[in-house]
Amino acid sequence: MALAFDEYGRPFIILKEQDQKTRLRGIDAQKANISAGKAVARILRTSLGPKGMDKILQSPDGDVTITNDGATILEQMDVDNQIAKLMVELSQSQDYEIGDGTTGVVVMAGALLEQAERLLERGIHPIRIAEGYEMASRIAVEHLEHISQKFDFGASNIEPLVQTCMTTLSSKIVNRCKRHLAEISVKAVLSVADLERKDVNLDMIKVEGKVGGKLEDTELIYGITVDKDMSHPQMPKQIEDAKIAILTCPFEPPKPKTKHKVDIDTVEKFQTLRLQEQKYFDDMVQKCKDVGATLVICQWGFDDEANHLLMHRNLPAVRWVGGVELELIAIATGGRIVPRFQELTPEKLGRAGLVREKSFGTTKDKMLYIEHCANSRAVTIFIRGGNKMMIEETKRSIHDALCVARNLIRNNSIVYGGGSAEISCSIAVEAAADKYPGVEQYAVRAFADALDSVPMALAENSGLQPIETLSAVKSQQIKENNPHYGIDCNDVGTNDMREQDVFETLIGKQQQILLATQVVKMILKIDDVISPSDY
pTM of the entire structure? Predict the structure, then answer.
């Protein structure tokens, strides 16, 4: 190794042994890939379950995030290794498709890789292992279908949905008021759901947060909240039966598109210009009044003169409202977004039963609530919390709960949680392994052992003896032929997850197994990593 300098005087190191370096190929590459995948899974393993630990993530800018959501942890980690990036994408796939189970799917993939490493050391070809895993995943998915249960729910009977959302929230920071948040999430989803088509548009649910208050103050608003206040402090703070003009045109005189200059050399000319401007404002306000509007919501700002005129003509107004919020207001109130004052008609006005401005604590923070809208299929979940990190984590937790409720409306099949489904699948896969005559049966058995890693991690994170607890629950399931026995993480006193009301969605659990198997198969088939410097 030698130190040299370039023409600008910057030092660089010359590595003389560079030509002797070799890149990993074959079995060595596969083992290195498996180690990278296991390292990522090991990070998330301690975050699994209701007693899982949280992680602090610090961004390069110094922003701090505290979370135990698998997708968020991996998304914010600065991962360079190509195989580790596959694990990050695996977690994100689960998040996009299901919304929950992002930690479990990575733990599952890590366990499959660990078992694959042992099989590779015994001389089994990676393609054989991949085929065995594929067979085992099919057995596990079919078995999940077999042990699943359907439940009925409706607008009047939301308890099953609430219980499932509570299971999701029990592993989050917000678990102390999981019942309250689960009810809010379920009511929000049912408000925007089309139960006949079994479809839910989560874009209609807006999740807002403001620092202050406590978590229990989180509320569901059947309408829209806008982080704005009335443009003039003397405008009314509450408007009932509001008729809302939603405008994307500014309250100001038109400006020429070319460069211009106005010379004013007499008082009369200035007076004429002022009167002309005032007439513009008068006409704009009058057009709004003529169509019967009692509130104006504008995407653009307006100057003090327009503001003063609006206040004097008893026309409350809100300015600088964003485009996304404007669309939600239009959907909720049944109004139309108007681009020009000339196009304003009574039919294009939105309608809301109540529009009110609300202040928070001793701060000057104010928000506008638009409630009892003509179309109640747009709702807002308004979160309160002690600090920004708490609000952000609550938003992530509520997103998971909303996704679970949506999945149950699409497919109302559930399996029981607490690792009971994994243990039951492990027993079924182990029993099926003997039917395969080839080398694949070793991989099928390894898959069964990998399934045990999820309940084992749950027991470990809950402070229980993992091997002892898993053995006891497994023997109980086999003895009583009951797939509902799982790990008693919360120390309730019973292992029966049906009694504890711990549910998970069937499609979420099936997706976990299928996604983890697909990624592990992909990793096993990689026997060489070629970087740009290699060619």
Answer: 0.80
